[in-house]
C-alpha cells in the first residue's frame, strides 16, 4: 500500500487526502493548526461543504486516514502533496511564506523516487525557481532526477453540487517527462480518468463526441481526465490564466450589467437567454484578428447604444481595440522575424494563406485579411495570396505556387483543407524562411528553427 502525505488540510487538502484514502492509499494528513487536526481525528470536517463532508466520512470509515501536526511522523510517505494557502500580502503581492514553510516540512523526508506535487496555486516559475532549489537543499537530492516534482493545480469549486475533487479534470506538469507521467498515473488512479497529452488532447477527445440526429458530433469532457502539460510552468500558467480569463469575463458581464442599466434591460434574463446557446462559448483562442458579421460587429452596436444612453463601456472598447489591433500585431511579428533573417518587409515576397474571416466558410466580412493585406502593402511587401474558398483575391492557383519564391508565409485562415495541405509542405524547400501562423494551426515542433522560423500568435 502506497503512503501519501498531504500538507495543509483545508478546502483543498482535506478532500484530496480523503479521496486518496478512499482509493486505498494510506494517508497521513499534516496541518500546523492543532484545532484542524483535533477536529479531523474526532471525525469532524472542520468546514462546511457537502461533497467534502461525504468524502471525509468515507475516508474515516476506510481506516486509511489519519491527521497529525507532528512533522516527524511523515517518514513513510512516497508521495507528498502540498495544499497550503498562497495568499497575497498587504501590498497585494504573492505571499509564498506558507509554501516555503511547507517545503521545510517535506524536504528533510524526501528519498529517491518520491513524488512531490504542489497543488497550491502558484505563479509561473515558482516550482522551478523557488520550490525545486529549496527542496534540493533540504534533501540533498536533485529534483527531476532523484525525485519527481510536479504541479497539479487544484480546480475545486467548494459548494458545487456536481464537480468535486474526484471528478474535475486535471492538468499536470513536472520538471521531467517521467515526473509528469508519474504524477499523471497517480491522479488517474485516484480520479479514474484517462490520461491525455496536451499536444493531442483536443483530437483525442473526438472519439468521445456524441452525435446529433444529423450524424454531427458534439464534444463531451471526460470526468476525471488528466492532461499532461509540456512543462511545469505551463501547468502553473493554466491555473493562473484560467482564473484570469474568468476574472475578465466577470468584469465583462459587470459591464453588460451597467449597459443594461443604461438601456433599461434585465441582464440576468439576457444572460440566461444567452446561456441557451450551446456552442461558441469557449474555449477562446487568440489569432490574427476577429472577423465575421457577428463578433466583430455586434459589440460596436452595443458600444454605440450604451454610449448614447450615457454609459461608456470601457472593457468592450478595450476588447475591440485589442482585437482590431491583431493584424498590426501580426505584421509586427513578421517584420521582426524577417529582420532577424536580415530582410526588410519592403520588397519581400510574402504569401498570405487564407482570406476569409474563419475556417471553412467563404464569408469575407470583417476578415482580418483586409487590414493585414493593407498594412503589408503600405510597408511595400510584394504579396501573393491564395484561398480555395475565395478565388476572387487569389494571385496564384494553389498553395505551392503561392509559396514558391516567397520568403515568408502568413496564415490568416485555418481552412481544414489548407491545414491538411500545409502539414505536407516543405517550407524550407520552397524557400520560405518565416512562417507566421495567425491561427496557431500548425505544429511548432514540425519546424526546424535553423531553416524556417515559425511563430504563432502567443506561442
Ligand atoms: N479553496 C478553493 O476553492 C481553492 C480552489 C482551488 C485552488 N485553491 C488553492 O489551494 C491552496 C489551498 O487553499 P485552501 O482553500 O485549501 O486553503 P485553506 O486555508 O482552506 O487550507 C490550508 C490549510 O493549510 C494549513 N497550513 C498553512 N500553512 C501550513 C504549513 N506550512 N504546513 C502545514 N499546514 C499549513 C492551514 O492551517 C490550513 O488548514 C491555495 O493555493 C489556493 O489558492 C483553493
Quick structural overview:
The chain has 459 residues and is an alpha/beta fold. The protein is built from 15 helices and 16 strands.
Description:
- Belongs to the UDP-glucose/GDP-mannose dehydrogenase family.
- It comes from Biformimicrobium ophioploci.
- InterPro entries: 6-PGluconate_DH-like_C_sf, NAD(P)-bd_dom_sf, UDP-Glc/GDP-Man, UDP-Glc/GDP-Man_DH_C, UDP-Glc/GDP-Man_DH_C_sf, UDP-Glc/GDP-Man_DH_dimer, UDP-Glc/GDP-Man_DH_N, UDP_ManNAc/GlcNAc_DH.
- This is Nucleotide sugar dehydrogenase.
- The chain is α/β, with parallel strands linked by helices.
- The chain has three domains: 3-233, NAD(P)-binding Rossmann-like Domain (Rossmann fold, 3-Layer(aba) Sandwich); 236-322; 326-456, NAD(P)-binding Rossmann-like Domain (Rossmann fold, 3-Layer(aba) Sandwich).
- It has helices spanning 13-22, 34-41, 50-62, 97-106, 126-139, 177-191, 201-205, 232-263, 267-274, 298-308, 314-324, 326-340, 369-378, 399-403, 416-423; strands at residues 3-7, 26-30, 65-68, 79-82, 115-118, 148-151, 170-174, 195-197, 210-211, 217-218, 226-228, 349-353, 382-386, 408-411, 434-437, 453-456.
- It has a nine-stranded mixed beta sheet, with helices on both faces. The protein has a five-stranded parallel beta sheet with strand order 13-12-14-15-16. It has a two-stranded antiparallel ribbon with strand order 9-10.
- The longest helix has 32 residues, at 232-263.
- The radius of gyration is 26 Å and the shape is globular.
- The model has no long low-confidence stretch (mean pLDDT 93).
Amino acid at each position: 500500500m502506497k503512503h501519501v502525505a498531504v500538507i495543509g488540510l483545508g478546502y483543498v487538502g482535506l478532500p484530496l487526502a480523503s479521496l486518496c484514502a478512499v482509493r486505498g492509499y494510506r494517508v497521513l494528513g499534516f496541518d500546523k493548526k492543532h484545532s484542524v487536526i483535533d477536529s479531523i481525528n474526532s471525525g469532524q470536517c472542520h468546514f462546511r461543504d457537502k461533497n467534502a463532508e461525504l468524502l471525509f466520512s468515507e475516508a474515516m470509515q476506510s481506516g486509511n486516514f489519519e491527521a497529525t501536526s507532528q512533522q516527524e511522523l511523515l517518514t513513510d510517505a512516497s508521495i507528498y502533496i502540498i495544499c497550503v494557502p498562497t495568499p497575497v500580502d498587504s501590498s497585494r503581492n504573492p505571499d509564498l511564506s506558507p509554501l516555503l514553510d511547507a517545503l521545510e516540512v517535506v524536504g528533510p523526508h524526501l528519498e529517491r523516487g518520491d513524488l512531490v506535487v504542489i497543488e497550491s496555486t502558484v505563479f509561473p516559475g515558482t516550482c522551478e525557481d523557488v520550490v525545486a532549489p529549496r527542496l534540493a537543499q533540504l534533501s540533498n537530492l536533485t529534483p527531476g532526477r532523484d525525485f519527481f516534482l510536479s504541479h497539479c493545480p487544484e480546480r475545486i469549486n467548494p459548494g458545487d453540487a456536481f464537480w468535486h475533487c474526484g471528478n474535475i479534470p486535471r492538468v499536470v506538469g513536472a520538471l521531467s517527462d517521467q515526473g509528469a507521467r508519474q504524477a499523471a498515473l497517480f491522479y488517474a488512479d485516484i480520479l479514474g480518468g484517462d490520461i491525455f497529452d496536451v499536444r493531442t488532447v483536443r483530437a483525442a477527445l473526438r472519439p468521445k463526441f456524441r452525435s446529433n440526429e444529423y450524424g454531427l458530433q458534439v464534444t463531451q469532457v471526460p470526468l476525471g481526465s488528466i492532461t499532461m502539460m509540456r512543462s511545469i510552468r505551463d501547468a502553473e500558467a493554466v491555473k493562473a490564466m484560467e482564473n484570469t480569463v474568468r476574472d475578465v469575463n466577470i468584469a465583462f458581464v459587470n459591464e453588460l450589467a451597467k449597459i443594461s442599466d443604461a438601456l433599461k434591460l434585465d441582464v440576468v434574463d439576457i444572460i440566461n437567454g444567452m446561456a441557451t446557446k450551446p456552442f461558441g462559448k469557449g474555449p477562446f483562442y487568440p489569432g490574427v484578428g476577429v472577423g465575421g458579421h457577428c463578433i466583430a460587429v455586434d459589440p460596436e452596436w452595443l458600444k454605440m447604444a450604451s454610449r448614447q444612453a450615457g454609459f461608456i463601456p470601457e472593457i468592450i472598447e478595450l476588447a475591440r481595440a485589442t482585437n482590431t489591433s491583431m493584424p498590426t500585431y501580426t505584421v509586427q511579428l513578421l517584420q521582426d522575424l524577417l529582420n532577424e533573417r536580415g530582410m526588410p518587409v519592403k520588397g519581400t515576397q510574402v504569401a498570405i494563406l487564407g482570406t476569409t474571416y474563419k475556417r471553412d466558410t467563404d464569408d469575407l466580412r470583417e476578415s482580418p485579411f483586409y487590414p493585414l493585406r493593407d498594412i503589408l502593402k503600405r510597408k511595400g511587401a510584394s504579396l501573393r495570396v491564395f484561398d480555395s474558398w475565395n478565388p476572387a483575391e487569389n494571385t496564384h492557383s494553389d498553395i505551392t505556387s503561392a509559396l514558391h519564391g516567397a520568403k515568408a508565409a502568413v496564415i490568416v485562415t485555418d481552412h481544414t483543407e489548407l491545414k491538411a495541405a500545409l502539414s505536407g509542405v516543405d517550407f524550407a524547400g520552397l524557400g520560405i524562411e518565416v512562417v507566421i501562423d495567425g491561427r496557431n494551426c500548425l505544429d511548432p515542433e514540425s519546424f526546424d528553427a535553423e531553416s524556417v522560423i515559425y511563430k504563432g500568435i502567443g506561442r
